[in-house]
Amino acid sequence: MSLTLGKAQNLKLDKKLQEKLGPLISQFHGTAGIYVEHLSSGKYAAVNADTIFPTASIVKIPILVGVFQKIADGELDYHQPMVYHDSIKYGGSGLMQFFKDSTATDLSTLLALMISYSDNTTSLWNQALAGSGETINPILSSYGFEFTRVNSRTKGREENWKQYGWGQTTPKEMANLLKMIRKGEIVNRAASERMYRLMTNIYYDDYALSQIPPYIQTASKQGMVNASRSELVMVNAPHGDYVFYIATKNNEDKSWKPDNESWVLARKVSALLWEYFEPKYEWKPAQGIGDFQEGLSY
What is the pLDDT of residue 293? Predict the structure, then answer.
């Protein structure tokens, strides 16, 4: 499996897109990176694409892969009954922390909450079910990913956890992971398709997703901590799928307001990419509810 990444089509730098993205990334107050690839043409653009960034909640994609490997191996069942106990409750984002003790649930619900609502309680539960990073990381390595790793609650990754938090990746690697899921190459086709379906139902659509027509399917995951905000998106666009990963760290703006600099950057990048790949699609974000379009010109 380690040869999978090497089998990718010959890629070609899109110089025009590179020139558009460069100034956006360089003006960010912190460290930003991006990798963009148009799947059918093989054209790409990249800035700091091989730099390691914290994943925050985007580590839940590798956890998802780990769980589906267990399902494929017959150690878990997608609809396997589970019982929630509030002793595993974990704060932050998500819903299961508010469930009553001894609530009956199932594995598919844990996975849906982890991805759609970035639920921390179910994510840690799923990480344990997958065998933690000690099982997940070798799977990632087997697919050719050198830097994408689960750090938290993983023996031997304590120093990495101190530096990067729950997980780490590069823009290029995480974009490639989603690309491989889209192509049915992670675990198996059935697992890849189920993972992709889960990633098309995302609650956090105020950022990059807000700049893509709601009628266009996207698969995505967002990661947010004070000094690092990142977003992974695959767009099933009319003229071909494109994937991008926008990552930030060392952010000067640590606010949680809608106009946080990193979120504005994600919207600018997403708007630029949509208009670049679909210039004739007559749609603009509507003004009104949840409208954070100020300052999006580029």
Answer: 53
- SS3 string, 105-123, reads EEHHHHHHHHHHCCCHHHH
Structure tokens at 78: 């997608």
pLDDT of residue 6: 41
DSSP code per residue over 260-292: -HHHHHHHHHHHHHHHHH-TT----PPSSTT--
258-273 b/e (C-beta count within 10 Å ≥ 16 → b): eebbbbbbbbbbbbbb
**The two structure tokens encoding residue 48:** 């700091």
- Taking the CA of residue 113 as centre, how many other CA atoms within 13 Å lie in the half-sphere pointing to its CB? 21
Place of tokens 């700049």: 211
Consecutive 10-residue runs of the chain (298 residues): their mean pLDDT? 53 98 96 98 98 98 98 98 96 95 98 98 98 98 98 97 98 98 98 98 97 98 98 98 98 97 98 98 83 47
Model pTM? 0.94
φ, ψ for residue 75, nearest 5 deg: -90, -20
Are the beta carbons of 185 and 193 closer than 8 angstroms?
no
Secondary structure letter of residue 27 according to DSSP: T
**Cα gap 173→37, rounded to integer Å:** 12
